[in-house]
């Protein structure tokens, strides 16, 4: 019995002694990547995913506003409400990340791409191509909404992100920074290969927490900014609507998400993953 216990302890010690090796960082610029079909396939996946994301979500927003418009015979309590809109955004991110994660990583958001680029998960070339594809996909997605809902599109604001009355630009910027921080932080945590290797007993379906993060952030910030946290979403709606107030505060929906993504990348990589400590050399506490 004693020998069996010792064997178990030795086996456990051997298992715990195994070191985890981080995957190598993506090269900053990899021109060879431009010759690979996988890069363009991933960009196409980002384009289609962002198109579908904007089509479903903006259509949901406009449909809700029409159903709740009492002047048009609607019911102020009708439609899906803010809860339903938040579910539309979070649910679409869940299903689209699930579909595209194995092809492009399922970014569907320039802020997410920017955060992963800062963490050296993607190269500069891939990051730029993703962002272009996402913005073009967003424009096409909202274009389909306008084509199918031409009677209501302009009347209900085209799904454009604008500051709600009673809130300052500073409040809106802070809301976008914090909301994007939450999203990108969850993306890093849910896709962390070290966590998957270390905590294999905790199954994590990465698209699920990411979708829930989008859902929760929308619940909190729809009354403030309409919730951007995705520059492509805000840009696509502004380009197609291109009307009153569409561009007045548009900078908030780029600056805020990029700052939030930057903070999330620094927090996860250099504090939670101890990147700064590794860079300076490991040390042991004498406490």
UniProtKB/TrEMBL annotation:
Coiled coil: none annotated. The chain crosses the membrane at residues 42-64, 76-97, 127-151, 171-190, 202-224, 251-272. Keywords: Membrane, Transmembrane, Transmembrane helix, Transport. It is a multi-pass membrane protein. It comes from the Eukaryota. It is found in: Membrane. The keyword Transmembrane applies. It holds the Pfam family MIP. PANTHER family: AQUAPORIN OR AQUAGLYCEROPORIN RELATED. Belongs to the MIP/aquaporin (TC 1.A.8) family. This is Aquaporin PIP2-1. It comes from Datura stramonium.
